[in-house]
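Long-time lurker, first post. I've been practising inverse folding by hand and with some scripts of my own, and I keep getting stuck on stretches where the structure tokens seem ambiguous. Below is the full token string for one chain I'm working on. Before anyone asks, I'm not after the true native sequence, just a reasonable design that respects the backbone. If someone could post their per-position residues I'd love to compare against what I wrote down in my notebook.
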């Protein structure tokens, strides 16, 4: 059983973070925020996949203004990602951002930070203090050296220094992230930080890579931390369609038995007995089940002879070969169809199962 670290609770919109709340899965759009239609289209896909908090880049005042139009058409909290310009942070909150991600030390001094904090208090917006290995202050790098697994001190000190800047302004609706592109540095940094503060922690491996490398690096780092009870919300960062980040995120939580959302998909790795295009079928089924919410077990198997028995615990599954497809439930034959309509028939059965279970 995982014993979670006790943290303060904050709220990003209607999503609680920390204080024993469910660990939330986030993503960030890669569209131009000023293009409201394309950003909305991507957020809608993220919502369908289960994304619980979404972040958008605010590059200029037009992007900050676009937040108002985006906010009124989505149903999950929206965070504005700000770099350097305190005016963009204020404008983003005035236009409905429900959270901001900043590095307080690079906003231009105490007076400008005070304006950001005043706006955050007025609009009841929490602030994520986000520090990456590449954004650490020069004096801390000189004092502690570049962050490594053995010595992540500069990363931790940078985050806590910036937190203190907010605390001096009387602001404590804070969550913290200290991201590195190195897996072991990420693990070590968060482990040490978690012993020094009770603010909720946002986990992530920055610049993790594409689908394979990014999934592996993020799953190793975040999996270890989450298993140790560290982390209140996270993003899987992939050089990929952000919907993939949500898929990986929920599979990570499922594998640790922390949270379940939607079906668990099991599929055979294929062998010489496979006589159908299982790769394509599995991909289509996987895409479909991402829109489902019921926690059922779905199997995609390649062998009609062994498939149902090997996946007998699945609520529903398919297998096929030699022009014939079968659909089975709990290892028992449920329906036999022609192979060319197997996928279509199976998706229809999934839809019925979602509606009735």
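-- Answer (accepted) --
I ran through it position by position. Result:
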């Amino acid at each position: 059983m995982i014993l979670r670290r006790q943290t303060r609770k904050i709220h990003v919109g209607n999503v609680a973070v920390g204080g024993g709340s469910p660990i939330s899965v986030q993503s960030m759009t890669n569209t131009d925020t000023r293009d409201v239609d394309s950003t909305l289209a991507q957020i809608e896909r993220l919502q369908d996949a289960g994304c619980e908090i979404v972040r958008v880049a605010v590059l200029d005042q037009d992007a900050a203004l676009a937040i108002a139009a985006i906010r009124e058409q989505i149903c999950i909290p929206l965070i504005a990602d700000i770099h350097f310009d305190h005016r963009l942070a204020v404008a983003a909150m005035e236009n409905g951002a429900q959270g901001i991600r900043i590095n307080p030390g690079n906003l231009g001094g105490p007076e400008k930070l005070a304006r950001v904090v005043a706006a955050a208090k007025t609009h009841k917006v929490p602030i994520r203090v986000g520090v990456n290995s590449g954004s650490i202050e020069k004096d801390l790098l000189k004092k502690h050296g570049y962050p490594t697994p053995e010595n992540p001190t500069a990363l931790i000190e940078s985050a806590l220094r910036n937190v203190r800047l907010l605390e001096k302004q009387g602001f404590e609706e804070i969550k913290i992230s200290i991201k590195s592109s190195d897996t072991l540095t990420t693990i070590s940094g968060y482990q040490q930080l978690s012993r020094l503060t009770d603010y909720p922690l946002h986990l992530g491996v920055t610049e993790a890579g594409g689908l394979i490398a990014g999934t592996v690096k993020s799953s190793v780092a975040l999996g270890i931390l989450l298993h140790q009870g560290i982390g209140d919300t996270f993003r899987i960062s992939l050089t990929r369609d952000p919907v993939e980040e949500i898929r990986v995120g929920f599979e990570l939580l499922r594998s640790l038995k922390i949270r379940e959302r939607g079906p668990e998909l099991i599929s055979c790795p294929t062998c010489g007995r496979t006589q159908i295009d299982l790769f394509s079928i599995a991909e289509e089924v996987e895409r479909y089940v991402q829109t489902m919410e019921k926690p059922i077990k779905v199997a995609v198997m390649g062998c009609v002879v062994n498939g149902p028995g090997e996946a007998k615990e699945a609520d529903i599954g398919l297998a096929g070969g030699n022009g014939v497809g079968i659909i089975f439930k709990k290892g028992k034959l449920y329906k036999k169809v022609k192979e060319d309509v197997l996928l279509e028939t199976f998706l229809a059965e999934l839809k019925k199962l979602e509606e009735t279970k």
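A couple of notes from the structure itself: The chain has a mean pLDDT of 90. Residues 211-227 form the longest helix (17 residues). Happy to go over any region you disagree with.
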